[in-house]
Structure formats: structure tokens, C-alpha cells
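Cross-posting from the chemistry board since nobody answered there.

I work mostly on the small-molecule side, so proteins are not my area. We synthesized flavin mononucleotide and want a rough idea of how it might sit in this target. Sequence and SMILES are below. Is it possible to get a predicted 3D structure of the two together?
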Amino acid sequence: MSVLMSLPAAGAPPPDPSGPPARASVDPDVFRRVVGHFAAGVTVVSTELDGVDHAMTASAFTSVSLDPLLVLVCVDKEARFHDAVLASGVWGVSILSASGRRAADWFATKGRPLVGQLDQFPYHHGATTNAPLLDGALAWLECRNWAVYDGGDHDIVVGEVLDAGLDDRDAAPLIYFRGRYGQLT
Ligand SMILES: Cc1cc2nc3c(=O)[nH]c(=O)nc-3n(C[C@H](O)[C@H](O)[C@H](O)COP(=O)(O)O)c2cc1C
């Protein structure tokens, strides 16, 4: 498959910023397949709100800044985690190892029960935010909301890192690539 893009000719004036926005011409399915070629790690982001633990698989996670310490996750506005994290103002990140595939599948399953959804996985509540953190994670962070930016059908939730830690096992990470899980070989 090839994807053609039209670029302005060299020396052409830049587009008029006051003019109408260019209409997106990339088919959404092509877009999904293209961005699926960006191999990503897999996390479970989580929060606790009014005594209920929320958790969701997320690969749109990245570090942002060292000073201050910031990370971000892009959260679907329709996801239950979305309203929960905006209300609680704090969240946890469990970075999954290759053995976390079952957790990644489960926390991406639509319609799973909200209450008790973590029960089948060993976890603990973070000391700083009370967000649930998976015991088998490679590494974890606890964050508080720093800023929330509109990102179309997602919100970009930037978190200030309050606490973080590593597992000492030298385990392989879980990777998501072309719509499939894999691991580094
Ligand atoms: C590998 C993988 C990565 C995902 N990454 C994200 C993500 O970064 N942001 C997001 O909002 N949803 C992401 N999703 C989808 C959510 O995990 C899924 O829609 C989940 O069921 C939402 O939680 P809810 O059912 O409690 O609303 C991802 C799913 C998979 C399988």
C-alpha cells in the first residue's frame, strides 16, 4: 500500500492561516493502519474515585518534560476513565511487561464491570494518589493532573509525576504494533 501526500511546491507561499482549514483527505482506516506502525509500549492507567477503582489499557502514553516532571496520556472522551480522572485529578500508570498481555486485553474490553474489574490481578493502591497499580508492572508512576488539552475525540491529559518506581526484574516490555501484541526479541 502506498499513501500519497501532496506537498506545496518549493517557494510557494505558506497557506493563509485565516482561510478555511484544509479538509482531511486521509481515510480513517488508512490513518489507523499508518499510526499502528508506530510500535508502542502498553500501560494500564488508573485512578480511584469515591471508593471505585478505574483502569484502562492505554498506549498513547509518553513522557513530556523533565523540569517539571510531566507525562501525558490521550484519553478517549467516551472512556469511563475520562470523567473519572478529570474528577479525581490524580492517576497511576502501570507499564506492562510481556506477561501483562491478559491485563492489557481485559482493561481494553468494552462492557467489563466497573466495580471489581481489578480483582483478578494482583495490585495495590499507590501511596501518593491511591490509584490502583498492577503488581506485575515493569515500572509505575503516580501523577496529578497538570493540564488537560482538547485533542478531538480524546483529551490530552498531562500529569505531573509525584512518585515513580521500577521493578528489579529484567523483564521484556509488552509491545503493541500493527494491532497486535508482541515483545522485543
Ligand atoms: C493496545 C491498546 C491501547 C489502547 N490505548 C488507548 C489509549 O491510549 N487511550 C484510550 O483512550 N484508549 C485506548 N485504548 C482503548 C481502551 O483501552 C478501551 O476503549 C477501554 O475499554 C476503555 O475503557 P472503558 O471500557 O472502561 O471505557 C487502547 C486499547 C488497546 C487494546
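Reply from a structural biologist on the board:
Welcome over. Reading the output above for you: The helical segments are 28-35, 80-88, 101-106. The domain at 31-183 is CATH 2.30.110.10 (Pnp Oxidase; Chain A). Happy to explain the C-alpha cell format if needed.
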